[in-house]
Design goal:
The protein is of the alpha+beta class and about 140 residues long. The chain has a domain of about 50 residues. Helices cover about 45% and strands about 15% of the residues. It has four helices and two strands. It has a two-stranded antiparallel sheet with strand order 1-2. It starts with 15 loop residues before the first strand and ends in a 12-residue tail after the last helix.
């Protein structure tokens, strides 16, 4: 954390600059990877300590991982060819709705539940209890 760069940064309302070092371990190879990520925040040192900035940064990634990552991984949204009019926005909304619906049913693993439901349209209706003769399906 530093405020020494503030006068050199051409960015409005900069409070301080920071660096977060991310360390990941590959379970299979045992290899360790280190990546430095740099950022700025409008919060000054009196408003946010290094610990608070780290919590804010992790909070951002929890949102990214809980929704954006699920959409991208399961629907390959970044490679979608839908590009005209309201198509991209509408597809994103439908995908978010589907994920929200699955989460609301208490699924422990949204990606796994999506893979299960893809196998059978009937399973989708049973899962959502949308037919008169829906079988009892567990929420998880």
């Amino acid at each position: 954390m530093t405020t020494e760069l503030n006068e050199y940064l051409d960015f409005p309302h900069v409070g301080q600059a920071f660096m977060v070092e991310r360390i990941s371990h590959n379970q299979k190879s045992g290899k360790e990877t280190r990546v430095a990520a740099y950022g700025i925040t409008s919060k000054t040192p009196d408003l946010a300590s290094a610990e608070q900035v780290l919590r804010d940064n992790r909070g951002h990634w929890s949102i990214e991982n809980s929704c954006h990552y699920i959409i991208d991984w399961n629907y390959d949204e970044d490679r979608s060819r839908i590009a005209k009019g309201y198509g991209p926005e509408n597809m994103t909304r439908l995908r978010r709705f589907a994920i929200g619906l699955i989460k609301s049913k208490g699924a422990a693993n949204v990606s796994q539940k999506i893979r299960q439901l893809i196998l059978s349209p009937r399973m989708v209706f049973d899962y959502l209890k949308m037919t008169k003769n829906s079988r009892c399906v567990s929420a998880g």
